[in-house]
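RECORD TYPE: inverse folding
INPUT: structure tokens
STRUCTURE:
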């Protein structure tokens, strides 16, 4: 009986050791992926801070895309490209961009700065999408599009 208990205890300890090895291996893999993702994100330009969206980090954007779009960057990039097209049109017409919720009226230099910030956000978002493994981002695959410099 004692011999049986001893074998069971040794077996149990071996299983716990294997479990601990598995847990530490999993932790190392997750830590490595996080490190490489952060390194890839570090290669991307920062999204500029401004009075409209505040401060937005790469991780926050990636989490949003994962939650809202199940990791598909295409709709998120298209949304910001569409916004960019609209505000560039507002700027070309000499009109004012109004954010009613924050009571901000952008025209002149402030609107130019915001247009530049949105361009930078689109560029940063494209980079983030590439950094986490998406092969092509919207617009890059379409040579000759208006955004790509075509007609």
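DESIGNED SEQUENCE:
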């Amino acid at each position: 009986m004692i011999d049986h208990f001893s074998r069971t205890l040794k077996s149990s300890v071996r299983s716990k050791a294997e479990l601990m090895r598995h847990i530490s291996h999993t932790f190392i893999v997750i830590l490595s992926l996080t490190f490489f993702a952060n390194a890839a994100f570090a290669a991307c330009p920062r999204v500029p801070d401004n009075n409209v969206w505040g401060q937005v980090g790469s991780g926050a954007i990636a989490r949003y895309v994962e939650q809202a779009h199940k990791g598909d960057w295409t709709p998120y990039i298209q949304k910001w490209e569409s916004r960019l097209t609209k505000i560039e049109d507002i700027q070309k017409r000499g009109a004012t961009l109004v954010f009613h919720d924050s009571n901000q009226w952008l025209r002149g230099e402030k609107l130019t700065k915001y247009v530049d910030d949105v361009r930078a956000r689109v560029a940063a978002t494209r980079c983030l999408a590439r950094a986490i493994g998406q092969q092509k981002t919207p617009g890059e695959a379409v040579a000759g599009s208006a955004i790509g410099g075509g007609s």
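NOTES: The chain is about 65% helix and 5% strand.
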